[in-house]
Write a structure and sequence with these properties.
The complex is a heterodimer of chains A (about 500) and B (about 250).
Chain A (H helix, E strand, L loop, with lengths): L22 H9 L2 H23 L4 H17 L1 H14 L2 E6 L2 H14 L4 E4 L3 H5 L2 H7 L3 E4 L2 H8 L16 H15 L11 H18 L2 E4 L3 E3 L4 E6 L3 H7 L3 E7 L3 E2 L5 H12 L7 E6 L9 E7 L3 H5 L15 H5 L1 H6 L10 H12 L4 H5 L9 H5 L6 H13 L8 H13 L1 H17 L5 E2 L7 H4 L4 E2 L6 H8 L6
Parallel strand pairs in A: 1-10, 2-3, 2-4, 4-7, 5-8, 7-10
Antiparallel strand pairs in A: 5-6, 6-9, 11-12
Helix pairs in contact in A: 3-12, 9-10, 16-19, 20-21
Chain B lengths: L8 E4 L3 H5 L3 H12 L3 E3 L9 H4 L4 H15 L4 E4 L2 H9 L1 H8 L2 H12 L1 E3 H8 L12 E4 L3 H5 L6 H7 L5 E3 L14 H4 L1 H17 L4 E4 L2 H13 L5 E4 H6 L2 H4 L1
The chains are: A alpha/beta (about 500), B alpha/beta (about 250).
Amino acid sequence: MTAEPQARRTPAPSSTYLGMPKFQKNAKAKLDDPQLRKNLRYATTTIRAKRAERVAEVADWEELRQAGEAIKTRTLRHLDTYLAQLEESLTRNGATVHWARDAAEANQIVIGLVQAKGVDEVVKVKSMATQEIDLNEALEQAGIAAWETDLAELIVQLGHDRPSHILVPAIHRNRAEVREIFLREMKQYGTPAPEDVSDSPAELAGAARRHLREKFLRAKVGISGANFAIAETGSLVVVESEGNGRMCLTLPETLISVVGIEKVLPTIADLEVFTRLLPRSSTGERMNPYTSLWTGVTPGDGPQEVHVVLVDNGRTKVLSDPIGRAALRCIRCSACLNICPVYERVGGHAYGSVYPGPIGAILGPQLRGIETELDKSLPYASSLCGACGDVCPVRIPIPDILVHLRHKVAQTKHVPKLEPTAIALAGWALSDYRNLQFLERFSTLAGKTLSSRSHLGALPWPASPWTNARDLPVPAQESFRQWWKNSHKEGER
Amino acid sequence: MPSDAAGPRVALFATCINDVMFPDTPKAVVTLLERLGCTVEFPLEQTCCGQLFTNTGYYDAAVPNVRNYVKAFESYDYIVGPSGSCVGAVRHQHPMLADHSGDAGLAKASREVALRTYDISEFLVDVLQVTDVGAYFPHRVTYHPTCHSVRVAKVGDRPYQLLSKVKGLDLVALPDADQCCGFGGTFSVKNPDVSVAMGADKARNVRSTGAEYLVTGDNACLMHITGLLHRERAGIKPIHLAQILAQTEAGAR
């Protein structure tokens, strides 16, 4: 007989990322959700327009992007040096540095630190690193409740949901859905939402503020990530919009920050480039409302025990790939998600992992390794339109890296069964003009046979993926090559 | 520009899809460039830019295309193709593929040939320095700037400059013109549902313009959007930019 499982402290997410099917399958389901389509179209269109407006104001935007790229590239090249410097600076200023090779180690470190404080709950600043290592669930398993305090993360957590966007995790929800979630769930986990709360953003934010207040005031431990970590000074930086981060970073006695090792910047002067690039690229604002910097422990002010967990979790593996490593420049702004026509139509959950959209399609498979069906499908989840690369504030060549990862996927055994054969046939046809010329005899014959029509309608497999929704043009009755040879004299090219 | 062949000698890069499916487009390039005084040649060794293979992840299958391209075109100063996407692939991907092959000679040659490769709109505006090509096309059209023409080949507003000088032409702005149509090469069959969802929005925007013709500089994207429009029996005709520019008032009579 197994023991009765302990009651959960926090809302259970409805799904796990483990065993997610490939992108195509997830995408097909999402395309059929009209509410999701409407929510995404509205949200991405709005935020895209805001970004474009704010970027257009900056005369030296391109130079700023180049500076951002250069700083990140240089830092990554000397990452070992800067990390050692960061550890030294942090320690000098009273912080305790922990190193974690992977998610399990990082979670174990955090659990140990929280347990050592003898508490069973923590408040959290929105953080991608803790999402990546699934810290909340690890804490839950250890009997510790982790409360998300960012409004959208709260919506996701109370909604038994998963984030679908890096910056706007509840982008897939509209305010009517948010109201229902608040009414149904808040009372089970703390201060209830007012019975008469409307779906106006101000009233919903008010309900969230009241719900979170008691948790902020009660919490002895805060957990954050960091947008940047300054090696020179040992300062961590969090940029945010709601002030919930500032509360978590200043109220609790103990602060634990989980930081990916690629977040390091050499000097405080480097930060100015990113405080300009990030808000304009992410929320379409000139400045984000709250930028918090803290340097270890300041006696009598703020947390008196400061821990920093530096996490690898696949990053050094990414760094070893000369093409793929550019993905580590990412500052998690989400501009590539908001501009992506694929993301706009399927949303973040279709990408089956914490990092959705174009950056997720290049970062996820690299961090995790190209092994699962999902990770093999993600590099193909793009039409390669290039819009993502154009908006990226640190100039990550996302389309090039997608192609690079496709090359890696194509070298694995589990590509679609007939794909290598189809590619080999097409490769033969196009490897020499004489082969193409030979095949044109058949294409033009088909053209002549079907001369009564311009297009073909629905056809069986293997043409069906095209013709299910699109008519297929009939080949020409005379190829250009044939026409040229017939109309130009022998010897003349 | 005198018409007695005083202009440059130009090699036509027809592209494989135009060769087999849409020969009227490269024919129009021949007509247009000869009218503008160029001597047009078609090196028979050419096949394909290899993008189909590269973008599906099969670099080794794409390398012979890079070799063919260099072999066919290396003796020309001007190589002109009616496709922002294929020209973009030559310029942006061929050097990478040549590096992948480990052939240093090919790596050097592919970079040199890429520099001499132009989309038709670039060749007209930048090399021949002409925007009024003497074309006549008395129809209402809308133009879709294909992603690779804008973001890889970077043809900018050259197609609009050329279209604005076409006599009789009524150019209607396409809503959300900068959004991808969803073709994306093998994306169109590897992710058909998303591809069609994107294409459906593009087709709806095209219909909203009331245009008779949808114009692009890439017949592959055009094939995708037209495939959707034709399924709807929308009655909107596809046409490549070069085919509009090739038409003259004399020819229309």
